[in-house]
Design goal:
about 250 residues; alpha/beta; 7-stranded parallel beta sheet; 3-stranded antiparallel beta sheet; 10 strands; about 30% helix; globular; binds 6-phosphogluconic acid
């Protein structure tokens, strides 16, 4: 049963990044203590980059149980990892090149294959990792998502048939900015996570944040992220929350 999302509003992008890093490290500690590993999937774009940079610094870097942490990507642009458009390349520059983490636990999406092949390869890699039986979906401990002003999330774009995918875990798509071939996790994967956190900053997102949180059945991709059993949290800065009802505009703990 989908429960109402939690809303945390932070004063600015720096406070947002700190709060996101805190969620990341806290979830890692809880999950590794409880079941010996932490599985997280991160999105691309600019918003998560500040969180990644914060995770590379104290006290977060030494507070992380990296040996038992497995990092996956929600989506990726089919460009070389060295391209400025690469989600893995950005996270590697901001975080993984700065900490000593076994590369064997960092799982970038393959962008050196034709998109359909890359999607099938990552799909198979996930099924092998989660040892999932036929028909089930993986239960990531934590998935970070962003949102575009058009309401897209991951690389699931409004009006595309990819929103109706119910079997595959990873698919090849085209769209977004940059408009390039992409790989993306599908909605069922996102909705089977134990926790999903939308990270949103900036006044240019205020309208879409209000639209999605009004939850009026617009059918936008971000509005269709409704975890089946997991926890959904919207972690936004005050600019992105600026069109929400006044009583919600406070710097939540
Ligand atoms: C991508 C992202 C995408 C992103 C949103 C928000 O690869 O483009 O996964 O879904 O999260 O477009 O991007 P910003 O954080 O740059 O606003």
């Amino acid at each position: 049963m989908f429960s109402k999302p939690g809303l945390i509003i932070k004063s600015d992008p720096a406070a947002l990044a700190l709060a996101a890093a805190d969620i990341f490290v806290s979830a890692a500690g809880e999950c590794t203590a409880r079941h010996g590993r932490f599985t997280v999937a991160v999105s691309g774009g600019s918003t998560p980059r500040q969180m990644h940079r914060v995770l590379a610094q104290e006290p977060f870097s030494s507070g992380m149980d990296w040996p038992n942490t497995h990092v996956f990507w929600v989506d990726e642009r089919c460009v070389p990892y060295g391209s400025p458009a690469s989600n893995y390349g950005a996270a590697s520059e901001d975080l993984f090149q700065k900490i000593s983490v076994a590369t064997g636990r960092i799982y970038p999406m393959p962008t050196d294959l034709p998109p359909e092949g890359g999607a099938a390869t990552y799909d198979a890699q996930l099924r092998s990792f989660f040892r999932s039986s036929q028909g089930a979906f993986p239960a990531f401990d934590l998935i970070f998502l962003g949102i575009g002003p058009d309401g897209h999330t991951a690389s699931l774009f409004p009006g595309q048939p990819t929103l109706e995918e119910r079997d595959r875990w990873v698919i090849a798509v085209r769209g977004g900015n940059p408009d390039v071939p992409r790989l993306t996790m599908t909605l069922p994967v996102l909705n089977h996570a134990r926790r999903v956190v939308f990270l949103v900053a900036g006044r240019e997102k205020a309208a879409v944040v209000k639209t999605v949180l009004d939850n009026d059945g617009t059918g936008l991709p971000a509005e269709r992220v409704r975890p089946v059993e997991g926890i959904l949290t919207w972690l936004v800065d005050q600019d992105a929350a600026s069109l929400l009802p006044k009583e919600t505009l406070h710097d939540a703990p």
